[in-house]
């Protein structure tokens, strides 16, 4: 018999802890959209302030700065008939792309340059820079080169390893790739990103 039976309350507590860990992980992995939000807010505020200024100038009988709101409306209404037939579609496409950019920024979650390592009791977060340093150390050990000759960039789906060999020494790309992949497995990185190793054509003079 099981000396520590798992009752309904314990299962409920375990599920609550899992939900809390998942919530913490999502919060730590997603980056805020502060830049896009600030830019969009500034654009909207600038447009509103401009039209308020033009309306105020017209209301006190002063000449408008550029155009009154009514003149702007007439200009937009006549734009399809007066605008250049080539320039108008290009400007419309540009506005569409800008709007699509802000829409996607608001809908799609941003991702920070970090990932979660498996752990049964806590949420373990590791920055990509830390993983890159570990992989660079393993790659330069395998290639027998100095730290300055290896550069590793870690992304969410790809690890890019760039190695500058020592002049006169031939390096094996497959051996370096297997070493880096083994280091990823040892560090419990999941899912495993693709590893790409590139050997520079220009070498470094050995000391």
Briefly say what this structure is:
This protein is α+β, with helices and mostly antiparallel strands.
Could you please describe the fold and organization of this structure?
The chain is an alpha+beta fold and 207 residues long. The chain has two domains: 34-107, no CATH class; 114-199, 2-Layer Sandwich (Alpha-Beta Plaits). The chain contains six helices and five strands. The strands form two sheets. Strands 3-4-5 form a three-stranded mixed beta sheet, covered by helices on one side. It has a two-stranded antiparallel ribbon with strand order 1-2. A hairpin with a 3-residue loop joins strand 3 and strand 4. Helix 5 crosses helix 6. The protein starts with 7 loop residues before the first helix and ends in an 8-residue tail after the last strand. The mean pLDDT is 82. It comes from Zhihengliuella alba. The chain crosses the membrane at residues 35-53, 86-104. Residues 10-21 have a biased composition (Basic and acidic residues). Residues 1-21 are annotated as: Disordered.
What characteristics describe this protein?
207 residues, alpha+beta, Alpha-Beta Plaits, 3-stranded mixed beta sheet, two-stranded antiparallel ribbon, 6 helices, transmembrane helix, Alkaline shock response membrane anchor protein AmaP, transmembrane
List the helices and strands and how they pair.
Layout: H1 8-29, H2 34-59, H3 69-82, H4 87-107, E1 114-117, E2 124-127, H5 128-143, E3 150-154, E4 158-163, H6 173-186, E5 194-199
Organism: Zhihengliuella alba
Region (Disordered): 1-21
Protein name: Alkaline shock response membrane anchor protein AmaP
């Amino acid at each position: 018999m099981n000396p520590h039976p798992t009752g309904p309350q314990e299962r409920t507590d375990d599920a609550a802890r899992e939900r809390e860990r998942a919530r913490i992980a999502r919060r730590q992995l997603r980056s805020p959209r502060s830049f896009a939000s600030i830019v969009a807010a500034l654009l909207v505020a600038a447009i509103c302030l401009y039209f308020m200024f033009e309306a105020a100038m017209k209301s006190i009988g002063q000449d408008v700065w550029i155009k009154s709101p009514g003149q702007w409306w007439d200009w937009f209404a006549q734009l399809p008939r007066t605008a250049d037939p080539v320039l108008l579609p290009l400007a419309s496409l540009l506005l569409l792309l800008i709007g699509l950019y802000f829409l996607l920024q608001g809908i799609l979650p941003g991702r920070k340059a970090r990932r979660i390592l498996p752990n049964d009791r806590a949420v373990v977060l590791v920055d990509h820079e830390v993983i890159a340093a570990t992989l660079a150390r393993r790659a330069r050990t395998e290639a027998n080169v100095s730290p300055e000759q290896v550069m590793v960039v870690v992304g969410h789906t790809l690890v890019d390893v760039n190695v500058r060999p020592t002049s006169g020494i031939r390096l094996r790309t497959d051996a370096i790739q297997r070493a880096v992949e083994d280091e990823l497995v040892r560090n419990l990185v999941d899912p495993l990103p693709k590893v790409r190793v590139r050997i520079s054509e220009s070498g470094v003079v050995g000391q």
